[in-house]
Amino acid sequence: MKLFFYCLILSVTTVSWGQNSGSPFIQIKFGSSQTLNSITQIVQDKYGFIWLATKSGLIKYDGYDHKLFVNDHLDSKSISGNFIRDIIEDKNGLIWVATDNNGISIYSHDSGNFTQISTGNLTSTANVWTIIEDNKYPGEIFWIGTTKGLIKFDYKNNRTEKILLSDPSASIVDLLEDSQGNLWIGTNHGLFIHNKIKEIKHFTSNGTTGSLGNNFIWKIYEDINSDIWMGTRLGGLNFFAKNDSSFITYTFENNSMPDNRILDITESKSYPGKLVLALWDSGLYLFDPRGKHSTNLISEAKFNNLDGLTLFKDKLGILWFGTEDNGVFFQNIYNDNFRLISGDFKSKQFSITSIVKTDDDILAGSTIGLFNITEDKLVPPKTSDIFPDEILMKNIQNIIRDKKGNLIIATFFNGLYVLSQDVQKKYRIIKRLLNTKTINASFIDSKNNLWVSAHSYGIYKYSDNFSLTKHYVQADSVFLRAIFTKTYEKSDGNILFGTTRFGYFEYSPLTDTFTQHKSKNNDNKTLNNNSVSSFLELNNGDLLIGTNGGGINFKKKSDEQFTYIKSDKWLMGDDIKSIIAEDQRIIWAGTDNGLLKIDMISGSIYNFNIEEGLPGLPFQDNTVFKDAGDIYLSVKNGLIKFSPSNLVMNEYSPKPIITQIKVLNKIYDNLINPYTKSEWDFDYPERTISFEITSLNYISSNDNQYMYRLYGINDEWQNLGNERILTFVNLVPGNYRLEFRSTNNDGLLSEEINDFTFNILPPFWMQWWFIVLIVVLILGVISFIVYIRFKSILQIEKLRTKIASDLHDEVGSSVSKISIIANLLKYESERTRLESKLDKLNVLSNEIVNSMNDVVWSIDARNDSVNDLIDYMKNFAITFAAEKDIEINFDTENLKPHFKIPLNYRQNIYMIFKETVNNAIKYSGSGMFDICIKFDGHTFGFRITDHGSGFGENKGRGHGLQNIKMRADSIKAKLLIIEENGITINLIVKIRK
Question: The pTM is what?
């Protein structure tokens, strides 16, 4: 079973915005459940998480996702109940949760568990409505309000005390400890004030002036002036007058309140000197005690029936408003950043195509006619009083004003009008140009020449008196096919003409020629998109070109190459509609995805969108205007107006934290707090780790940006953008420190760097003990090899010694005999005796040759097989027996002829065999021998039976039998000698490689 039961609800968290920038609050709903969207209390913990008490559990919200904690009756570590009346965070960071009918639970970040506190029978049978922490003894003494009275709870010593009130049947609804240390107790039977010693005062409603407006007190609040206010169920707002302990009431009846049921009270720095009220039937209201009137703060039609439950101010001072059934609202600090300028004709679809300022007015041309911009509204001019009726309702593409004050109005179907203003400020048409043409764009250059592009007719140039100077149509007819979008004059006098399909054309007055600039594949000296919407030249001559689909193309004056500023780099839309400079550092661009603010020096970027109060999207092509610090840009059905110097920015950028660690199939998502341990250890198979990082900035949280660096891999900061999941794959064993920072939605970098230290433990084969074991094993193998080598050398030395011994034994005595006989020959004169000695010399020399042949054969590696050994043994026996005219029956059994027999075995087996056969032939007197040899791959044996006379008197006289036994012992062979019907000698030896 899990430590506690919870539900993750990720996809159903919704953020609702007002219809326009007049909405000062943003709505968040959690699924479709009404009880889950009944927010009874709100608190922000020490890490920055927002906790919301609901009628269906406890919600933990991080600006992106939320987690729901509910009761699991099988788990004692889950929350005790789902209907939650109150939550607080104490001095030690514990979350206290008061449930309606299941007592109190305490949540610990360190363990991720809930524990139930015991206050005896005082809360076990009562509903807990409110908890506060004692200001003098924080973390130790708590005051608990229940339906059965007031409890003083000593958490440190686990002692409870019931505080007796004069009305024991009163249910405690709210508690407040004021700045003087007095305890204010709101009940369903009036107000009690307790000095926390003995004195308790009781105030009730008796219907007279100066008494409470109602005995049911929902909320008690102390304002910044230390004045006490009370919200009641049906008695409106009550003010406590300290001088005479009387009450002043503000109700629906005296026109101060829209509703007499006030559930919460607070103040906000956004509304100095006023109170913010949560009203049960009327939503969120602002109350001015001086003027004694109230104002609805959420006035949109779809929120007319809001039921207010609770109010809260977070660390930034932003106001949160909990409702019945409609989730929670929080304050939109960007409410006044942007203003939508439109008119009373929202049913019509139109676009503002150009803006121009005259001596008296700011005029806006649109696809449905001409407007004045007056008091941030689009107002049609009065017909014929200022403008001729003929042009008021035209599809206006462009309005410009020349140096003489003339207005040139380009229309989509009816050519171009030139208007001049008379002394009565009335405009009249003085000339019409291209009156049957479709005008795309018009422009007046620095020499007061008028340039006009007409669809399918090319470009016309007029002088300052509107005489046609030249008509430009290129031979390849590109001008005839082009739709021109924007005309712009550079500081060098060249004029740029943007098109929708063919890039842009640059006109040179010096050569009176046009040069086309268009996109070429894989060529960064050209545009990346041929749909050009806007131009902007900086003071240093650098050029910005806005495109529809290719972002911003940036070209330095000193460089032929383009830099392409697209959405994958700057998180904007790639459709750039217009560009304007605030100054030579800050550039503003309207895009299909918001309003882009670019710092050309630092390279920083910020994209304002709906969440930052932008009331309309998308922006429209080309239309941008600047006047007295205000910037106007066209959006669908109107204009956006803003003052860059007055933009409200978010100045709160909290330290980011880790909200989840995922290793293999294990997920740590605050089941334990990752910072309670100084270091985390992960086993070698767990070396792929994912971290989820969150900056608890709730204002446009999707625009928070993240960066990290992992010491041990990369010490440089790496940007994640708005991606919060960070995964490291197959980390090598070692020690790591992960550091991360974040920016808020306005690009403000967090001052604090958070870090997380962890170790990837090496596998057993990389542990010191295993390495030592391997070293020992390698040393052992080397020692064994050395030992084997040394043993081999010893065996070779032993073999050499043995060969020498064999040569000495086999050859030495014969050589000595030859030497003696040779010396005797010098003294022998008789021929017969001389021949006899020479015969002996011949026999001895043959014996030496045979002995030498046996020794050489025994050490020759080519004779290692069983087959070679048996052949040699057979050859010797048959040859020797033939000299004595003896018959030999030679038999073999179970032979493995190709097996190898080590030298030592082979030599001794042969010498034993040779000695046995030699003795049998010399001494047995038999004319027939039986020899049987067998070898099964492990055991070698032979049996020789001579069928002779046995040992008789020769037994023990020679050294042959002793030699046989000695050799048998040297190879650990079993030698069996049987004297029966002759002599049988059995030899059995196990061959060890």
Answer: 0.71
